[in-house]
Specification:
410 residues; Rossmann fold; 2 domains; 35% helix; 18% strand
């Protein structure tokens, strides 16, 4: 009987319990790494994925790796070839990694057809074929001949119903990989079975992009700290003038709906009390701190102020679980990074001492935590973007749902 990982939304078959000896494992990874002039500029994703390949090889499997890279729009493009990823994976593993010049057809089948235990092959970019994004069953069938067992280890791609994450699961025994299961476990801990009090930090530019997230979180959490441009919209809904600050005047009704849901659930919505303002948005711009109801017409709010930061620290100081998605201000441009950096370091300190479970995710969030130098101190940091947000909304992702109903090997 295959090991399974039980979630609130169903059970996921775990590749850790499958018999892979003498079989070729076709694994979907997310190795969409940053590139410049054909060179990988950050190999973190490959380094984190390499132990999974090494484990499968040590258990007697041959491994065929498939991933996307960039947006080649369904056409072959040498600028988006996965060959550099193969070379980096080879370095990480300390064993040869063959490169197949396509992910389907003769080139792929020649590379995967006679693999021996422990051998590894990297397939060419999945997105060189339109069938990938179209969730084509025919394209999935062509992929499936490259292996005996399928593994999805790309949570960040699980929100897309693509051939390599969805259609393929109907065609071969399918499992979840360790990175995907780790992501699901961390999010389940924060969302469904947190140690209380549980606090969310939700930042970013626009309320309209996170309506479903906020509606879901305020009904489950004890407090939600709202910051960034989103907080400006909440403050505007309370009648405060925002000057030139980023805000959405057309989202007042949405704000009121979210506040009503929070009140009914007993969730405290915590907004900034003071703000750092400036009259121009650039590094080192002259700035001052004012109450949130005193933003001049010719100025803009760019960060939370010290009184707000103190209040947020108090909430996090009493919390046992924190979910973080989005910066507190315009963190990319000093000095408007101060609140984000200081609160991140405070949370990280508590996480290091095991006083706090800190789960964070989203592209801007990861960048902010990296800037603060605390990424490794958080309990879990997700690099998934859209998939992370959709999970926070309470959705079951297509790639996850497909694994829950997929066949397993005998």
């Amino acid at each position: 009987m295959t090991d399974t990982f039980t979630t609130n939304r169903g059970s996921l078959p775990d590749i850790a319990g499958a018999n892979v000896a003498g079989r070729t494992v076709l694994i979907r990874a997310d190795l969409n790494v940053p590139m410049k002039n054909g060179e990988i500029t950050d190999a973190t994703r490959i380094a984190r994925f390499a132990p999974t390949v090494a484990d499968l090889a040590s258990r007697g499997a041959a491994v065929a790796v498939m991933t996307h890279l960039g947006r080649p729009d369904g056409e072959p493009n040498p600028c988006f070839s996965t060959e550099p990823i193969a070379r980096e994976l080879e370095q990480q593993l300390g064993r040869p990694v063959t490169f197949a010049k396509d992910c389907v057809g003769d080139a792929a089948e020649a590379a995967t057809g006679n693999l021996s235990a422990g051998q590894v092959v990297m397939l060419e970019n999945l997105r060189f074929h339109r069938g990938e994004g179209e969730n084509s069953r025919n394209f999935a069938m062509r992929l499936s001949v490259n292996g005996d067992l399928y593994v999805n280890d790309a949570f960040s791609c699980a929100h897309r119903a693509h051939a390599s994450t969805h259609a393929i699961t109907e065609l071969m025994p399918s499992y979840a990989g360790p990175a995907l299961l780790g992501e699901v476990a961390a999010l389940e801990t924060a969302l469904l079975a947190p140690e209380r009090p549980v606090v969310a930090i939700v930042g970013g530019a626009k309320v309209s992009t996170k309506i479903a997230v906020l509606k879901n979180l305020v009904q489950k959490f004890d407090a939600v700290i709202i910051c960034g441009g989103m907080a400006n919209t909440f403050l505007f809904a309370e009648g405060f003038q925002m000057g030139k600050s980023l805000h959405e005047a057309d989202q007042v009704a949405t704000v009121r709906e979210i506040k009503t849901l929070a009140a009914a659930a007993g969730c405290e919505i915590c907004l900034p009390m003071d703000a750092v303002i400036a009259r121009e948005f650039k590094a080192g711009a002259a700035n001052q701190t004012v109450p949130v109801d005193a933003c001049p017409q010719d100025a803009m709010i760019l960060d939370a102020g010290p009184a707000s930061l103190s209040r947020f620290r108090t909430l996090l100081g009493n919390a046992r679980t924190v979910l973080w998605n989005g910066p507190l201000g315009a963190f990319e441009t000093p000095p408007f990074d101060k609140a984000t950096v200081e609160l991140a370091r405070f949370a990280a300190g508590r996480a290091r001492s095991c006083d706090l479970t800190c789960v964070a995710g989203g592209g801007d969030t990861v960048a902010a935590l990296n800037a603060a130098g605390v990424t490794d101190d958080f309990t879990y940091v997700s690099t998934a973007g859209g998939a992370f947000l959709e999970w926070l909304e309470g959705k079951t992702l297509p790639g996850i749902a497909a694994l829950m109903s997929a066949p397993e090997a005998a």
